[in-house]
Structures are given as structure tokens and as C-alpha cells.
């Protein structure tokens, strides 16, 4: 299984609070993310147009699914994943509207449990429980937590 | 003896400009939206479908591999064929399947850009065949209808009559489309309904 990229959005979604690109990718603007080219493992990027597109996509789809899905437990209903001919996007949203998005190849199984584990075991432990971590990530700094990044790297790779 | 679960909630046909041209609910399960909401949904999906195509991960071809020291000058000059897609050889599509807890959305885009959205139960199998069949029916009964205006809504004036089971009204070709789709979707379930 190949994980192409991984995003975390807070409830505002204005800026992603965490982006990791595992496979080196070329953004649609045709410029190589070369500073990350040689180092293996996870690569961090501050901002990217792709992340905005990803957020827009999951936001629209989630709203669409909520509108169509029935009335019961609507608060928790959202989509699990979607597939194109090239990749699979997995989505998990916490009750506090933090959104976890992972792009993988088509062969990967459902990553719902994995994303949940990332939230419970890594995000809550290392980011939420960190007294120095801000509750609102408005400045665009993002999570910026080495321990979280390291353990995520171990978890994903 | 319903050996195969074949629950189709609804069908939406979107033209190549993102306009809703056909909407039909077959079995209850999804919430009913107003016509306006369906139009918005069709437009939104059209946009999202295009975006999902554009966020396809692009994997650079490994051979350049510039060192970090020389990266800044070369960063501005990537070769045009500097990347490949995860599944090279397969045409890049937008969203094909969307899975949720409640339903599964299958999107089939024709070569001309018309999109067929089929909302089914997550356990329903063989959805591709159903969609393919619907496409055939669309081609036969809508596109071959000389009175059909391209990109305009598929008129289904007699739908309420068909639902109520009154067959005495003469059919237009397009209502025949609806009827035949209904038969395709429901398969044997109509017979069961009659037995009730």
C-alpha cells in the first residue's frame, strides 16, 4: 500500500494544520517539491494549493452526503472514502470536526480504523494533550510537533 | 428469495455542463430533497468531480533526483514529462465510487461528459452492469428521440401516472425510458409487490 499524502484540517479548514507528503508529488502548478526530493519518509509542506482543493472536495462531499443521508445520527454521518481510477481518498472526521484525509493507492483497504487510531493514539496524545499546543490553529503554523510527526511516520510507513 | 440485495435508491443524470437533466427516486432510503437542492447537488458534484481529477497525486519520475544543494535552481525548470500518475496507462478520471455508511455512489461518466450517478445500498453488487444498462437505455430512449433537445432535462411528464400504475395513458419515448429503467432497477421486486 502506498500513502501519497496525509492532511489534517481543523474545524475551520482555512489552513490545514498538518500536511505530510509521503510520495514526492508534483503539484498542479508544475513545480517540483525538490527540497523534499531526496530525504525518505514524510515530507512537510507549509502551504499548497492542493490542500485547499482537498479540503474543498471533502467539505462539499461531506455536506452532500449529510444532506442525502437520513435524519438519524446525522451528526456523525459522513463518507468513508472515494475512489477514482488513480487513487483512493480516505476520510475521517472527529466529533469536534477535525478532519483527517489520506490519499492512498487503489489497493489499500479501508483506512477508517487507521485514521481513527491516528486520531486517538497520536493526535490526542501528542497534540491535544500538549499544553503548549494552541487550541485554534489560525496562524497557519499547524501542528508543528516533532513527537507527533515521528510517531506518525512510524505508523504510516 | 432475495438472494442478491439490489437496492437502488436513486439515479441522477448530469449533463456535461453540470446541469441536472434527470432525477428519479426508486426506493426510499435517502432523504428527499427539493428540486432546487437536486440542482445544487448536481452542480456541486460536477465541480467536485473535476477537482478530484485535478488532485490526482503526481509521482515524479525518479531519474532527475537533484541533491538538496542544487534544488533551488532546478526547481523552476521541471521537464514536461517529469511525473507519472499512480496508474499509468489508465486514463485519469474523477470520482468513480463514493462510499458512505448509508449508501454507495457510483459515478459513470460517458465519453461526452454526461454523468450518471447511481445511489445504491453499500452491499449492492454488480453496480457497473446496472449503470451500463441505464446508459444503454438513455442512448436508446433519450438520445434517439428526435424530439429530445440536447442538454435539456429529460421530460417525464407522466411519471406520476406510471408510479400510480395507470397505464392507460399513451407513452412518449422518454417515459418509456423511465419505465424501462424502473424495470431494470427493481428486477423481481415488482412481482413481490403485486403479491403483497
Automatic annotation (TrEMBL), chain A:
Location(s), subcellular: Endoplasmic reticulum; Golgi apparatus, cis-Golgi network
Keyword terms of this UniProt record: Endoplasmic reticulum, ER-Golgi transport, Golgi apparatus, Transport
Keyword Transferase: no
GO molecular function, one term: guanyl-nucleotide exchange factor activity
Any Gene Ontology biological process: endoplasmic reticulum to Golgi vesicle-mediated transport
Listed InterPro entries: Longin-like_dom_sf (IPR011012), TRAPPC (IPR007233)
Keyword Zinc found: no
Primary location class: endoplasmic reticulum
Gene3D superfamilies membership: 3.30.450.70
GO cellular component terms given for this protein: endoplasmic reticulum; TRAPPI protein complex; TRAPPII protein complex; TRAPPIII protein complex
Family indicated by similarity: Belongs to the TRAPP small subunits family. BET5 subfamily.
Cross-referenced PANTHER family: TRAFFICKING PROTEIN PARTICLE COMPLEX SUBUNIT, TRAFFICKING PROTEIN PARTICLE COMPLEX SUBUNIT 1
Subunit text: Part of the multisubunit transport protein particle (TRAPP) complex.
Protein name: Trafficking protein particle complex subunit
TrEMBL record, chain B:
GO cellular component, one term: endoplasmic reticulum
Coiled-coil ranges from the UniProt annotation: none
Compartmental location: Endoplasmic reticulum; Golgi apparatus, cis-Golgi network; Golgi apparatus
Keywords, alphabetical: Endoplasmic reticulum, ER-Golgi transport, Golgi apparatus, Transport
Compositional bias of kind Low complexity: 68-81
Statement: the UniProt record of this protein carries the keyword Transport: yes
Span list, region Disordered: 62-83
CDD domains: TRAPPC4_synbindin
Predominant subcellular localization, coarse grouping: endoplasmic reticulum
One Pfam family this sequence matches: Sybindin
InterPro entries hit by this protein: Longin-like_dom_sf, TRAPPC
Signal peptide: none
GO biological process, one term: endoplasmic reticulum to Golgi vesicle-mediated transport
Subunit-level organization: Part of the multisubunit transport protein particle (TRAPP) complex.
Family: Belongs to the TRAPP small subunits family. TRAPPC4 subfamily.
Stated name of the protein: Trafficking protein particle complex subunit
Amino acid at each position: 500500500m502506498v500513502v501519497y499524502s496525509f492532511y489534517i484540517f481543523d474545524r475551520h479548514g482555512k489552513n490545514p494544520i498538518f500536511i505530510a507528503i509521503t510520495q514526492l508529488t508534483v503539484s498542479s502548478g508544475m513545480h517540483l517539491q525538490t527540497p523534499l526530493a531526496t530525504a525518505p519518509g514524510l515530507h512537510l509542506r507549509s502551504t499548497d494549493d492542493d490542500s485547499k482543493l482537498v479540503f474543498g472536495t471533502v467539505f462539499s462531499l461531506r455536506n452532500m452526503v449529510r444532506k442525502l443521508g437520513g435524519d438519524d445520527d446525522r451528526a456523525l454521518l459522513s463518507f468513508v472514502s472515494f475512489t477514482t481510477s488513480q487513487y483512493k481518498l480516505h476520510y475521517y472526521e472527529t466529533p469536534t470536526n477535525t478532519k483527517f484525509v489520506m490519499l492512498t493507492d487503489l489497493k489499500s483497504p479501508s483506512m477508517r480504523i487507521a485514521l481513527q487510531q491516528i486520531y486517538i493514539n497520536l493526535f490526542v496524545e501528542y497534540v491535544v494533550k500538549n499544553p503548549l499546543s494552541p487550541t485554534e490553529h489560525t496562524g497557519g503554523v499547524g501542528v508543528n510537533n516533532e513527537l507527533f510527526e515521528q510517531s506518525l511516520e512510524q505508523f504510516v510507513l | 428469495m432475495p438472494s442478491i440485495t439490489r437496492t437502488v435508491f436513486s439515479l441522477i443524470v448530469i449533463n456535461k455542463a453540470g446541469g441536472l437533466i434527470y432525477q428519479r427516486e426508486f426506493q426510499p432510503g435517502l432523504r428527499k430533497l427539493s428540486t432546487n437542492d437536486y440542482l445544487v447537488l448536481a452542480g456541486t458534484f460536477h465541480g467536485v468531480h473535476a477537482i478530484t481529477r485535478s488532485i490526482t497525486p503526481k509521482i515524479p519520475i525518479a531519474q532527475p533526483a537533484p541533491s538538496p544543494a542544487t534544488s533551488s535552481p532546478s526547481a523552476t525548470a521541471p521537464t514536461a514529462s517529469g511525473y507519472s500518475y499512480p496508474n499509468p496507462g489508465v486514463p485519469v478520471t474523477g470520482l468513480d465510487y463514493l462510499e458512505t455508511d448509508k449508501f454507495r455512489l457510483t459515478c459513470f461518466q460517458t465519453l461526452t461528459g454526461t454523468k450518471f450517478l447511481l445511489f445504491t445500498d453499500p452491499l449492492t453488487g454488480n453496480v457497473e452492469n446496472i449503470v451500463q444498462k441505464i446508459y444503454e437505455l438513455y442512448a436508446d430512449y433519450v438520445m434517439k428521440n428526435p424530439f429530445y433537445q440536447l442538454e435539456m432535462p429529460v421530460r417525464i411528464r407522466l411519471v406520476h401516472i406510471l408510479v400510480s400504475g395507470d397505464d392507460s395513458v399513451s407513452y412518449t419515448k422518454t417515459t418509456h425510458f423511465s419505465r424501462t429503467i424502473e424495470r431494470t432497477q427493481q428486477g423481481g421486486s415488482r412481482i413481490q409487490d403485486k403479491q403483497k
